[in-house]
Each structure stands twice: as structure tokens, then as C-alpha cells.
Amino acid sequence: MGPVNGEGAPGRVIVLGGSGSVGRQVCAAFAGRGWDVLAVARHAAPHLEPYPFAALDVTATEPRRIAELVSTARAVVNAAGGWGDTTEEMTYSHIRLVDRLLEGLARAPRRPRLVHVGSVHEYGPVPHGTLLTEDVEPAPVTPYARAKLATSQAVLTAVERHGIDAVVLRAANMSGPYPPRESFLAALAGRIRRALETGGTLELSVADARRDFVDVRDVAEAIERAARAPVGGQVINVGLGEALPIGCLVEWLIEAAGFPQDRIKHLDQEVRSKGGDWTLMDIRRARERLGWRPRIAPRESIRDLWRSTEAA
């Protein structure tokens, strides 16, 4: 795939949520393809130093100002919004942000392509063995998942009603470097590191679950491709295309850390899960329409995750 404008460098991309775990990889992926990256977040972060940065809370910004900003770009990526447990948190950081962004885009004299990063959690829990195609009827159950679905639906509605040029990428659970602190893998890495430092025992209760985990850098590559491909108005799954046993992810992380097996205590306790016991994404549409496939093996992704926590 060539540049957006066919005239050398692709142009400017605005990455909302550039300071986050996904946003930082998105910035790197676009920069690697020759885009002019503008990272946007409420607060700066050290890893954003290579890029121009704008401190902006999109939710609290006037649509006129957003329209002026996005008019300078050929693409906008919405990788903003964190995790949370309450409807109020999710409404502010996801739904209101997207509503304000779409209002700004609708007013923009020059409209860029919007790539909205959705989530596999929008589909909700499904029976074991289900292949999640883009046509599966979403049935989210958590505040986070419901908010993500609401934002994806808002984007698709804006395409139909207001002519916004946008695509929704529903991303699987993510692994790889610099995971969000709230994630399962980051929390486990933190527990392993504390046990290593103190010489203590690591107690584990592992869910009997299988989930689709894809490296965040592969997701970032898919986002960059979606900014250039003729896929406006579509929903596209981005995942590994495999249902990995959670126990394997745990074992690979312990292996990467070099944690002694004789200091691990396995507990026979029920594990509560917010994401269901099974996820498997159909990624054929991403292969066909984006020319994309995951490249980073899960074990390598987990190893890089651990190394990133060492660096941090």
C-alpha cells in the first residue's frame, strides 16, 4: 500500500491517547511509515519526546477547536480512553470523548480518515468454540465493554448520517511491551517482580479459559494500514486468530522472568473474569482488506512484555 496522497510522505496523523500503551505503539508505527505524527493526550509522557505533542482533553474541548485541529491531518486515530469499573468513568473517558470528536469532525472543512480502536469485549461473553466474526451480534456486559460498543456504534452512525470517513477496528486482548497497569498481564508481571525482589512465594490461581491475545505492535500496524485502505464504514477484527490457554500465557511470563518453579504455589480457587472464558476472533477481513496478519508470536510478545517492565 502506498501513501495516502500518492505524493511521497503520507501526511499528518493525529493520535489521540498517544501517551497510552496502545497510543505509543501507534505513534511508532505511523512514524515508521513516514507519517508526520502529532501525539495528543491530557499529559505528556517521556516516550512521546520524538513527536510533536499537544496537551488536550478532547472531552472538554470545544468542537470548533477540534475541527480546526483535525483539518490539519489526513488521519486521526482514537486510541484514547482507559479502563474502569463504573459507568460514570466510562461515559466520560469514552462516550463523551467520541461524541465530541465526531462533532468536531462533522464541522471540519477538510475531513481526515478516522480509525477508531474498538475492543473484542464489545461482543460480550460467548459460548466456548464460538468464532467471532464481525457479524456476531454484540452483547457486552461490563461498563467498559458497553462504553466501547456505544462509541463504535456512534462512529458507524456518523459515517451514515454525516459522511464521516471512519473505520472501526475491534482489537483482541493485547500483549506486548508496556501494557496498561490495569491489565491482567501487567498485574501478574508486577506480582512476579515483587516476589523476585523479596524472595517470596508466588501464589497463582489460573483461570481455565482460552482467549485471543495479539501483540500491541501488530495492532498498531493494522491501524496504520486502516488509515490508508479503502475500508470506510467497516468493522474489522484485529487479533491473533487463536484461542490461547491463559495457563500458557502465565507460564511464558514466569519463564521470561526466570522465576524459580519451587517458589510457585498453585491455588485451587475460582478466578473471576471480566472478559469471559473464551474469545477467538475471525481475522479474515483484516487479511483481505488491509493486507494484514499478525507477525509477532505470542511467546515472543510475552517475553517483550516482561522486558518492558524491567526497563520501566
Structure write-up:
The structure is a single chain. The protein is an alpha/beta fold and 312 residues long. The protein contains nine helices and 13 strands. It has helices at 21-32, 63-70, 87-107, 143-162, 184-198, 216-226, 246-257, 284-290, 298-311, and strands at 12-16, 36-41, 53-55, 75-78, 113-119, 166-171, 173-175, 202-204, 210-211, 213-215, 235-238, 244-245, 264-266. The strands form four sheets. A seven-stranded parallel sheet has the order 3-2-1-4-5-6-11, with helices on both faces. Strands 7-10 form a two-stranded parallel sheet. Helix 4 links the parallel strand 5 (113-119) and strand 6. The longest helix has 21 residues, at 87-107. The radius of gyration is 19 Å and the shape is globular. Residues 1-7 have low confidence and may be disordered.
Explain the layout of strands and helices.
Layout (H helix, E strand, L loop, with lengths): L11 E5 L4 H12 L3 E6 L11 E3 L7 H8 L4 E4 L8 H21 L5 E7 L23 H20 L3 E6 L1 E3 L8 H15 L3 E3 L5 E2 L1 E3 H11 L8 E4 L5 E2 H12 L6 E3 L17 H7 L7 H14 L1
Parallel strand pairs: 1-2, 1-4, 2-3, 4-5, 5-6, 6-11, 7-10, 8-13
Antiparallel strand pairs: 9-12
Helix pairs in contact: 1-6, 2-3, 3-4, 5-7, 7-9
Summed up:
The protein has 312 residues and is an alpha/beta fold.
Sequence of strands across the biggest β-sheet: 3-2-1-4-5-6-11
Q: Please bin the fraction of helical residues.
A: 25-40%
Distance between the termini: 35 Å
Gyration radius, to the nearest Å? Answer: 19 Å
Low-confidence stretches: 1-7
Sheet of most strands: 7 strands, parallel
Helix tally equals: 9
Overall mean confidence score, pLDDT: 93
- The SSE string, one letter per element, is EHEEHEHEHEEHEEEHEEHEHH
Structural class estimated from helices and strands:
alpha/beta
Shape descriptor reads globular
Beta-strand content estimate: 15-25%
